[in-house]
Amino acid sequence: MPEIAPRPLSSLTTLRTGGEPARMWEAHDRDELIAALRDTWATGEPWFVLGGGSNLFVGDEPFEGTVIRILTRGIERLPAPAPQVARLRIQAGHDWDDLVAYTVAEGLSGIAAMSGIPGTVGAAPVQNVGAYGQEIVQTLVEVELIDESTGEVSTVPAAELGLGFRTSVLKHHHGSEPLRRAVILSVTLDLLEVGPAPRRLRGAQLRQALGLEEDDAVTLQWVRDHVLATRARKGMVLDDADPDTYSAGSFFQNAVVSASFARTLPPECPRWPVRPDGADATSEPVRIIPLDTFDGYIPPAEVDDPDVKVSAAWLIEHSGIRKGFHLPRSRAALSSKHALALTNHAGATAAEIAELARFIQGRVQAEFGLILQPEPVLVGVDL
Q1: Could you tell me if 261 and 140 are in contact, meaning their C-beta atoms sit under 8 angstroms apart?
Q2: What is the largest CA-CA distance in the chain?
Q3: Mean pLDDT on 193-221
Q4: How far apart are CA 330 and CA 41, in angstroms?
Q5: In this predicted structure, what is the pLDDT of residue 173?
Q6: Are 67 and 25 in contact (CB under 8 A)?
């Protein structure tokens, strides 16, 4: 059995908070993981799984339950579903950035812009990770998962996971339970075989982030190198020598609001339209007009403005909170490089980080009328 002596969660999470759990398991392969989950669920006690610990905010008190560390690894190349498409199955505990590096070396396009994101592959679909215009929903085929309610293993198509902006049916949202309590065992992706040659990049957001014109051609390795450099400048690449990286990455989600609410914000606040999958700026709904009632006049279509994603970092800074800000006598601070990262510079407690998070939420709400939502999963801590 893979049970081990418990370790403080502050030593296993990138935000460096968390007490010691009552029990801890380590699963190094698929069978160990399934057995550990089924045995834990049979007890009826609290539990959670731990991958890279990069998207967890854990409270200071001991966790009265079981933590299961997912340490499974492996990349398997499956039969190609179409010409120039590579299908990969990756074990849930595999390091995400290690996977990205592998795909770049193999000339496989689809996730290079997500270089440097910490954590494991199994965590990526849970919150539909993304960066610079790429999201895992664009390449995800299916996941293999095990449901808590039945203990059964099944393969679930990506379309059934409710993937949206940093969300899925598997995610523990702030203040609510996931729609489906299950643990991912493996992830299957379809990536485009493009090789090592330079090519033009699709995606205006990625080109803008990398300073590229529409006709510029670059290699996948060039994209990876420049994304890593960009993230490092923002303190978003883990580095033991840089306290600004002692964080859970972006602590607050960019807010998705109605178009009408977005118009109440200052015009200089960065924003991006959020359109349904497959829609574009020129698409219109299909209308059917019965011939027996058609009188030659086609009324103009009613067009709903799409929701808008607005920059949480901009809202924070323009509510009067600057990079590097900390409350008096607190060891928690905003990163000096990025206004979305709450950092643990000097052994801050979870209570200190939560206090800073609540202060930021209050300032943004008072100034702009919306409440920023946390991105990490909260365990034993409230905001």
Answers
A1: no
A2: 78
A3: 91
A4: 38
A5: 72
A6: yes
Amino acid in position 250: S
For the record, the structure tokens of 40 come out as 């834990």
Tokens representing residue 284 in the block:
């219109």
What residues are labeled active site? 166, 250, 375
Which SS3 state, helix, strand or coil, does residue 317 take? helix
pLDDT tens digits, one per residue of 76-91: 999 999 999 999 999 9
CB atoms within 10 A of CB 117: 24
Q: Centre a 10 Å sphere on the Cβ of residue 144 and count the other Cβ atoms it contains.
A: 18
Q: Give per-residue pLDDT as tens, 232-290.
A: 999 999 888 999 999 999 999 998 899 999 999 999 999 988 865 444 444 444 555 56
Angle at 137 between CA 187 and CA 149, to 5 degrees: 55
Mean pLDDT of 202-215: 87
Question: At a CB cut-off of 8 Å and minimum separation 6, what does 266 contact?
Answer: 318
- Render pLDDT for 123-139 as a digit per residue (tens, 0 to 9): 999 999 999 889 999 99
- Per-residue tokens: 60: 């200071």
